[in-house]
What does this fold into?
Amino acid sequence: MIKAKKSLGQNFLIDNKIIDKIINCANIKNKTVLEVGPGTGNLTGPIIKKEPKKFYVVEKDNELAAHLVGKFDNKIQIINNDILNFDESLLAKDKVIVFGNLPYNISTEILSKWIINLKNNFWFECLILMFQKEVADRIISNVNNSNYGRLSILSNWKLNIKKICDINPSSFKPQPKIESTLLFFTPKKNFYKINNPKNLEKITRIFFSNRRKMLKKPYNKLFNGDLSVSEKLNINLNLRPQNLNCETYFKLTQEYEDLIS
It folds into this structure.
């Protein structure tokens, strides 16, 4: 019997109603599919029944990878690797439908990696991902909300995001202590052109390093006290970081890149 490993953040999905809801988020038939963290294959089997053209699974755990080989044989192509070290854009020429019951301990790192490494051509058609609820709340949070912050801004840069549902701990084995949330992501056709995504990370990190303080100090740190950018973007520097919408942070990043170029 396979036991979940706490060190890998494993909680296996066992709720068939939730599994049905997940696989019905997208039309899988004759599409290329990637599943991240398939675990014991409880979602993998129903995906196979939907007849994808190609089906890749990334599983870091050697024991689980071997279990999946025995269970599904050549119906899936197993990549026994850490998703953080894997280049998904090399999978296929087709755009990929991605499913992921992401390990809670690295879920934000995985999403951030995918967003930061995105070029103008998206390698995926959609992402259907499960997160710890408090992380999902940060991803989908709007301006002027206490959950709004760096992750909200980065996630909304190139992606449209829709909340599908919350999921109770009883849907997993072993049961986590917190709720989960299923989110659906699709690429935006138009988004702000930022030369280096790490500059967006830097801007948001500096502004949100002390979210209760006014914008004046972090702004001056980035723009050397030059108020022309704040005037151009109509930013009130007496506001706090959570009071600026995503669009303003994208524009600030563009202005910062012009400054340092």
Notes: Residues 132 and 180 are 4 Å apart (CA to CA). The mean pLDDT is 92. The chain has ten helices and nine strands. The longest strand covers residues 124-132.
